[in-house]
Design a protein that fits this description.
Blueprint: E1 2-5, H1 11-27, H2 40-48, E2 52-57, E3 60-68, E4 91-98, H3 107-121, E5 126-131, H4 136-145, E6 148-154, E7 162-169
Parallel strand pairs: 4-5
Antiparallel strand pairs: 1-2, 2-3, 3-4, 5-7, 6-7
């Protein structure tokens, strides 16, 4: 199992994984990713900018995520807490999804650890991530990798906008 940058050849598989993840979230009654995003256009842009990564196992794409080095407007205002002080710009990890056929194999922790490593190799010292309050599985993975809950953020134009925000400061 390894992580690599996504290519346009991966786009159909990425889209399938995202649509599968949306269906899983809906089946679990988690109102996350149910309003059209993430979508193929976002991944096209992130592949073009070399920000999208895929998790590979047995020559197959089994996961997808993006690592952004630009400020996320949703992270500007945090309630019920605060971001830990950092002296470097932060990176954020978004749109993390695994193919549902590998759920239950504890690959989420390995995947997120690889994403943290990739961000670190790009110069990240401050990493941020968020997830829906009802997405307990993702909260578990985020915390297991070492991220700490910092407060709540709100996603604009989302029918269920509240997200739990986490941060990992690398030494």
């Amino acid at each position: 199992m390894y992580l690599r940058k996504a290519t346009f050849a991966d786009l159909s598989r990425i889209t399938a994984i995202i649509e599968d993840a949306k269906a899983v979230l809906k089946a679990r009654q988690i109102n996350q990713w149910q309003a059209g995003e993430p979508n193929q256009t976002q991944f096209e842009d992130e592949i073009r900018q070399e920000l999208c990564y895929v998790l590979m196992a047995d020559q197959q794409v089994i996961g997808v995520a993006s690592i952004l080095a630009t400020e996320d407007p949703s992270y500007a205002a945090i309630t019920n807490g605060q971001w830990r002080p950092s002296f470097t710009p932060y990176f954020s990890i978004h749109r993390v999804a695994l193919d549902s056929t590998v759920h239950g194999q504890h690959l989420g922790t390995q995947f997120l650890t690889l994403l943290v490593t990739a961000a670190s190799l790009r110069g990240a010292h401050d990493l941020r991530i968020d997830t829906h309050p009802d997405n307990l599985a993702m909260q578990h993975v985020i915390q297991k990798v070492g991220f700490q809950y910092c407060g709540d953020i709100f996603i604009a134009n989302d029918p269920s906008p509240k997200r739990y925000a986490y941060q990992l400061v690398l030494e």
